[in-house]
Design goal:
Blueprint lengths: L1 H8 L12 E4 L2 E5 L4 H6 L18 E10 L2 E10 L2 E8 L4 E8 L1 H12 L17 E4 L1 E4 L6 H13 L8 E9 L6 E10 L17 E6 H7 L10 H13 L5
Parallel strand pairs: 5-10
Antiparallel strand pairs: 1-2, 2-11, 3-4, 5-6, 5-8, 6-7, 6-11, 9-10
Helix pairs in contact: 5-6
The structure holds uridine-5'-diphosphate-glucose.
Subunit structure: Homodimer.
EC number: 3.6.1.45
GO molecular function, one term: UDP-sugar diphosphatase activity
């Protein structure tokens, strides 16, 4: 399994990239922006990894235990309050590719290791568990941590992470749903945005120290990604977004 996940990001870590670089996984290929290659080679340079108990003032995660009585039976549920979020399906009609983002996700890395070790790890062997295991391919997305219209937050994320400048009237709402129903119940609003090469204003890659790589996925590979039995680190929102796009928007082959 680990080998398969690492194959997912293999090719991304060559010292000198061909232009542009292509990452293969399970028969699919992702075309990475050569312009943001610099970020791409740095995202797995994880060192000095350690765990600490979560401080109470975390701006991102607040743990609670909820008590309630259901049909006369007293119950409790341990839960986490996290930010709501937006995610955007982006299709470049010039290149006929979906635009996704690749990044190191500490929670995914932790999830992979704790699944393997069976318990909550306290230390991590970076040789045994290469940081590439925590790299995901996802929709462009962002947390709702400011009081702005959700579609405006989506517009900003498209610009910051992927580098396309589009007005909000070109971003359409797709669905609103709850993710993490067992632990967080956070709301995510899914948008769709069609861009062209003319909308591109920078190479994306995120802000404030984020290390994000833009990934272009052609539609054949998008279909293959959803093949029965696929094992990926991508979240359900990404798989849903691709499926929605293929069902509702993709040009007929
Ligand atoms: O513990 C944390 C958590 C977040 N951040 C920062 O907050 C940013 C949040 O990034 P943003 O791009 O706004 O959101 P995402 O990390 O992309 O996550 C959103 O998009 C994901 C993919 O759909 C969803 O799974 C998440 O629930 C949703 O919040 C990060 O980059 C960090 O800079 C930290 O520094 N520490």
């Amino acid at each position: 399994m680990y080998l398969r996940i690492i194959q997912f990001v293999k090719g991304a870590f060559r010292k000198i990239p061909p232009a542009p670089s292509v990452v293969r996984e399970f028969g699919q290929s992702y075309r990475s922006n050569s312009s943001s290659y610099h970020a791409f080679v740095e995202m797995d340079k994880i060192t000095a990894l350690r765990y600490e108990r979560l401080p109470e003032d975390s701006p991102y995660v607040k743990p609670f235990r909820m008590y309630y009585t259901q049909n006369g039976e007293e119950k409790s549920w341990d839960l986490l309050k996290v930010h709501d979020s937006v995610a955007i399906i982006i299709y470049n009609s010039t290149t006929q590719n979906l635009l996704l983002v690749k990044q190191f996700r500490p929670a995914v890395y932790h999830g992979v290791i704790s699944s393997a070790e069976g318990t909550n790890p306290t230390t991590i062997d970076l040789e045994k568990y290469p940081p590439q295991l925590g790299i995901t391919v996802e929709l462009c997305a962002g947390i709702v941590d400011k009081s702005k219209p959700l579609v405006e937050i989506a517009r900003e994320e498209v610009l910051e992470e992927v580098g396309y400048n589009v007005p909000v009237d070109r971003i359409e709402t797709v669905l609103t749903y709850r993710s993490g129903v067992g632990a967080t119940g956070a709301q995510q609003t899914l948008y769709y945005c069609e861009v062209t090469n003319a909308d591109k204003v920078n190479s994306g890659g995120g802000v404030d120290g984020e290390i994000i790589d833009v990934v272009e996925l052609n539609l054949n590979d998008a279909r293959n990604l959803l093949t029965q039995g696929s094992v990926v680190t991508s979240p359900p929102s990404c798989l849903l977004g691709i499926l929605w796009f293929l069902t509702n928007k993709a040009p007929k082959p």
